[in-house]
Amino acid sequence: MSIHGLILEVRVTGCRKLRDTEFFTRQDPYVVVEYATTKLRTRTCTDGGRNPTFDEKFHIPLIEGLRELNVIVWNSNTLTHDDFIGSGRVYLHKVLTNGYDDSSWPLQTRHMRSAGEVKLIMHVDVSAMKNKMGRSVAASSAHPVPALSMPAPSPTPAPAPSPASAATPAPAPALASAIPYTGVSPSYPPVSAYPGATAYPAYPTSSHAPYTTAEYPPPPQQPYQPPPAGYPPSYPPQPYEQSYPPQPYEGSYPPQPYERSYPPQPYGQQPYPPPPAAESPYPPAPYPGTYPPRPY
User: Fold this and answer.
1) pLDDT tens digit string along 58-91?
2) Which of 32, 46, 121, 259 could form a disulfide bond with 102, CB atoms 3.0-4.6 angstroms apart?
């Protein structure tokens, strides 16, 4: 049973056969009772000697778990520190069981030698302790231990919609179609994700089929047209593969016949006009022809 809050009545009647700490005079003993942090002191028994008498009563509230108290006996001195006579431990088992205890408890020195004994009369109201225990039992019965809480049942799932209601589409909100969008037009042209087509063609095009946007792949180029006759060749000369038909190397246009004069002379004729035969300083040629003769 619990003893917390009960009041222990302790009456210190006196001591017997105490150790004498004085050699020429009688000692003046007193008793200190300690319980937990509580310290209670009796009056000093002047010239009490070895058998002092106190007859003092104290009331000490008990604490659960602490069922013993300490008793210390001192000799009071006027000019010097008090002398330690002896101490003892008092157990509360008997008084808590029977409600009353008038035993004498032995005292010992610091060297575990006998220092006399102290007489205590202790009393506890057992009826109050029983009533307290009965109230605690009644309170525990009035408040039964709650049963283990069961988990809440899971909510019943909603029934699936019927096929007819599932097939019927929900009407669209009319507010979105009735109210037109009134956004403010931007002050700048919209930015395109890709660059726009340029106004100029990326490749040269013919005059017959102009276009404004670049196409891929580009149209084939027209073959190079030679300049009209009568004009000298252009400078710098065009690449070899750009002229058609191919021109002879370092030749004139149009090409002349090989080793032929223009206009061609009939075989055996003299050049025009022929030189007079008498005025020629050279002998006549062995074969008719031009002078000097052209190499074959």
Assistant:
1) 999 999 989 999 999 999 998 899 999 999 999 9
2) 121
